[in-house]
Design brief:
10 helices, globular, MetI-like fold, 80% helix, mainly alpha
Length: 256
């Protein structure tokens, strides 16, 4: 439709204008600085990685995975309540908009800021990291779950209710089988995200492997820094492959 194309054109040219203005106004570094030479020297210090610290890195990485897992589970539990209150047709109309605004507010702050708040309240420990990522996960999963609930097909559940089933039985057999693959897929995505975030929030004292990254950075031990990065990369890639296979299997099962 013409209106759609005009909106697309307007947004495109606004982006182009913003890009041009930014290119001219950004404070670019002095051209006399040899950025490529500095980059080669910097990344050259990463090799060879110092594998002597591998045992302690793996212990810290395991703590990071534990933080992310607990936070994802706690965030998912909180999200169910938020999602029910934020779903049109499920919650009373007066609660939908305030709940959605609360979820938007939670997502507005990055996980690192939530970690700063948690450390200020609870001190520099693992619990602060769990609390920060729990709130952040609740903000995202609450949004995802509410959209899933709104798009759900309630006809099977209503039929079971008319046939004499209890509300719980109607939810368990008429609604949950269709919701489970989507909800579990969203939880797995959040777990991936939380593991990456848990690797960073240690910079502010919220536990996990980020503390080691900070220590090696401060002392310029880039070969050890590289070892930590390689371990984080391996865990994230492995989890991504595993969760992708699980999500694909769940999608196939839901279509049968």
């Amino acid at each position: 439709p013409p209106k759609r194309w005009s909106s697309l054109s307007l947004s495109f040219w606004f982006f182009v204008l913003l890009l041009v203005v930014s290119l001219f106004q950004v404070d670019w570094p002095d051209r006399s600085v040899n950025i490529w030479q500095q980059a080669l020297r910097f990344f050259g210090a990463f090799f060879p990685p110092d594998l002597s610290i591998l045992p302690q890195v793996l212990r810290a990485l395991w703590e990071t995975v534990q933080i992310a897992t607990i936070a994802t589970a706690a965030g998912a539990l909180l999200s169910f309540g938020f999602a029910l209150l934020a779903s049109k047709g499920v919650a009373p109309g007066g609660l939908v908009i305030p709940t959605r605004m609360a979820l938007n507010a939670i997502r507005t702050l990055p996980s690192l800021l939530w970690a700063l708040f948690a450390v200020a309240l609870m001190g520099a420990n693992t619990l602060a990291g769990i609390a920060a990522l729990t709130f952040y996960a609740a903000g995202y999963l609450g949004k995802f779950f509410s959209e899933t609930f709104e798009a759900a097909d309630f006809r099977a559940a209503r039929s079971l209710r008319r046939a004499g089933a209890s509300r719980w039985q109607a939810m368990q057999y008429g609604l949950w089988p269709s919701l489970r693959p989507q909800l579990w897929s969203q939880i797995l995505w959040m777990l991936e995200y939380n593991i990456r975030s848990a690797s960073i929030i240690g910079y502010v004292g919220a536990g996990g492997i980020g503390l080691q990254l900070l220590r090696y950075q401060e002392f310029g031990q880039w070969d050890r820094f590289a070892t930590v990065l390689i371990c984080i990369f391996a865990v994230v890639v492995g989890l991504d492959v595993l969760s992708s296979r699980i999500r694909r299997r769940l999608t196939e099962e839901s279509r049968r």
